[in-house]
Amino acid sequence: MIRFPTDVAAVAETTGELRAGGTDLMERRRSGRATGPVVDLRDLAGLDGIEVVAGGLRIGGTVRIAALAAHPGAPVGLAQAAGGLATPQIRAIATVGGNLAQRVRCWYFRNPQFSCLQSGGSSCLARDGDHLYHSCFDDRACVAPHPSSLACALLAYDATVDLGGAEGPVTVPTALAALLKGQLGGAPVLVRAVNVPAPLPGERAAYVRAIARARAEWPLVEVVARVVVVDGVVTAARVAVGGVAGHPLRREAVEAALIGGPADATRIAAAAARATDGAQPLPMTAYKLPLLVGSVQEALERAVGVS
Predict the structure, then answer these.
(1) Contact of 70 with 203, CB cutoff 8 Å
(2) I need a surface site. Which of 76, 118, 269, 307 has the fewest CB within 10 A?
(3) Local confidence band at 185 (pLDDT 50, 70, 90 cut-offs)
(4) pTM score
């Protein structure tokens, strides 16, 4: 085991990885999918706090997900996403940075007997194999959906992520951070902090996830919706979805269909129908399209307060 601040670049030259909560890494090590040295982040100071900054939040990379879910200043959609993922036991250990940087949950990648795009192979085995829980937006060679619920929520909140390593900190948009290790591997990346802007005045928000079993499951579809309603009219909207593509997606067509119209069930239903614009489902993932529309509609109805 290596203790930070040992040079992260040195580990990047090996098969080593960073560890904070370790809920993903240790499972992969047990299965033989992850090997090599571990850079332990337990003793790295300054990454385990949540600060209020200009009405928004600066969330340290090693903050536990349970702490984020319970923080009184956390925006509603982000807090609900944090409180809804995994199990209470995992949320108590897993970290914000680890959730963003976790690897995909595809069974071909997780099985060391297979060699796929995520593990150094030349093709996506799920594409022509079992992809029941995979993408319905065919946006990259690997068809496994991005596994981070927090990435979806942070995209909806226009958050940025501070990354750091041997070359010092750099700030990137959440959409780029969502493409870190959850995509096609790469060198270890330290998530130092997540910066969430202040909520819009009067905004309402909701998080909805559709899962295959009652609990402890990664979402088939998830949605974070933010809406501002003034005098019965939607004046601002943000809708981000996850579980359907290789990275979380903004649904701009849904937002455009909402803004300027009444915040009623008819308008919401018409807007939610645009959630699948551009979708290219795989043979086994077409069922996600109506599930996505329904989840977006439910999230918007919850946010606005209509039924």
Answers:
(1) no
(2) 307
(3) low
(4) 0.92
